[in-house]
Amino acid sequence: MSTPATPPATRRARGATWFVVLVLAGLALAAAVFAWQRLEASRAAQAQAAAADRQRIDALEGRVAALRRDQRAQTARLQQAEATNRLLREELIGLGQRAALVEQSVQRLSDPERDAARALRLDEVELLLAQGQQRLLLAGDADGARRAYALAAQVLDGISDPAWLDLRQALAQERAALDALGPDPRVVAAARIEAFAASLAALPAASGPGPVAAPWWERALAALVRVRPSAEAGAVAPDARAAGLAALQLELSLARAAVERRDAAGCRAALARAEAWLPRLWPDSPARARQLQALQALRTLPLDVDLSVLGSTLAQLRRQRGAG
């Protein structure tokens, strides 16, 4: 049995199909080759860009390192310049001090008698101020302290150097404070205690109505029994009265000693003990009541004085002379 022959149209259709397939395969191959070339070109461009970026980064790092080196060099130069300026400033200050010392030496050499006289006057002022301060602190002599300060002011007025103007003002302020101080409370308290001790001799040793004014039964029993208050029965016998007077004088002496020490608490305690002796040594009377009031007033007297300003002129003089 024989195969029938293929028609020419069928053969042409098959040929066209294979031609189209071959053309499409060629186009696909060309597209693949073109895509591969583009990919390689892109990779090459990226590699070139990365290399260029690395070059730029390296260049920037080099510039930054150079700038840092320059900054360190500038900092070192600034530190060196600052040290040089400090050294020059210290040398300039030293030159100024040496010039001042040379000028002072020249002034002293030009007029040595005047400088010696001023030193003697300042020594005299210092001595007078110290004497005034000690007279007030130790002896309570405010008048003597005022006289010493007045003499110091006269001596200081004889120095015409304007450098001592502040010292004159300080001395004037201290003299004004000393004048406003008034009498020393310690001296006032001691004088009032002395006056009180001297006034005790004027107190009556006995009091009360006489035998005429007493009732008949009291006059009848007066030779046998005498009634006294218990507060006044402590020192009736002569020996006991003498001992009580000695104890009272001792308490007053302790009060005087406390006044000299400016011990207000000790003075009040001694006066309180002295006040307890008065009812035992003297009977009740208006004079004794006045003495008790005087003792109570003595217990309230102040003994301290405000000496905050005292000594400021002397301290300023010594400080100013020490500064040269």
Short characterization:
This protein is mostly helical. Helices cover 78% and strands 0% of the residues.
Radius of gyration, CA atoms, in whole angstroms: 59 Å
Instruction: Supply the helix-strand structural class.
Output: mainly alpha
Biggest sheet features: none
Order of helices and strands: HHHHHHHHHH
Unreliable parts: 207-212, 231-235
Query: Strand portion, in percent?
Result: under 5%
DSSP helical segment count: 10
**End-to-end distance, in Å?**
153 Å
Question: How helix-rich are the residues, as a percent range?
Answer: over 70%
Can you describe this structure?
The protein is mainly α and 324 residues long. Among the domains are: 59-103; 114-183 and 309-323; 185-200 and 233-304. 78% of the residues lie in helices and 0% in strands. It contains 10 helices and no strands. Helix 5 (185-199) packs antiparallel against helix 7 and helix 5 packs antiparallel against helix 9.
Pick out its properties.
mainly alpha; 324 residues; elongated; Uroporphyrin-3 C-methyltransferase; coiled coil; single chain; HemX
Please write out the topology.
Elements: H1 8-110, H2 112-139, H3 142-157, H4 165-181, H5 185-199, H6 216-221, H7 238-260, H8 264-281, H9 286-299, H10 312-323
Helix pairs in contact: 1-2, 2-3, 2-10, 3-4, 4-10, 5-7, 5-9, 7-8, 8-9
